[in-house]
Amino acid sequence: MDYKTDKKLTYVTSEVVITKSHEKVWKTLYEDFGNVALFNPNIDNSNFIEGHTIGAEGAQRQCNVNENKYVKESIINVEEGKGFALVIDEAHGIPFNRVYVEYQITALEMGKTKVVQHIYYRTKPALMGQIMKGKLGNSFESIIVGLKYHMETGDTVTKKKYKKIKKVFRNMEDSAQFTSKVS
What we know:
The protein has helices spanning about 20-30, 125-130, 135-155, 160-170, and strands at about 10-20, 45-50, 60-65, 70-80, 85-90, 95-105, 115-125, 180. By secondary structure, it is an alpha+beta fold. The protein has a single domain, classed as 2-Layer Sandwich (Alpha-D-Glucose-1,6-Bisphosphate, Chain A, domain 4). The protein has an eight-stranded antiparallel sheet with strand order 2-3-4-5-6-7-1-8. The longest helix has 21 residues, at about 135-155.
């Protein structure tokens, strides 16, 4: 079954406008796939695994939330320069049953880029996903806020820095372009 039509999955959509070129955003999100810890405040570190060194269909990474929790992810469904999807292949210590993430990347005028992030997920137990929808939505939203901040400042986004980053983000010129929807 296609994850987009699977009614058992909850989804969260966020979008943001980044004041960087399409090429730079594509490089950070896709080509540097293994370095997601530079902008994702939910994880301590990340790296390519299984011999992969650059983003490509089938490339895998491991994201360590802490010493005991991690996820392994793979790139699927690439539309070169436009977007890609990833799937969580393995979640250790994290209550996810299935997770799919899509990124759509669109060049805008004046060197800006729009990034749309769709996350489709199901927790185990499934009821937990409905109970924690708001908290998970905020956690997923922090990825795209972190991406914007990292791209525009060059700074690494960490759990410790994220509260201040979110405040700074809300005051950035293009933050009005930011929307998030949990369904």
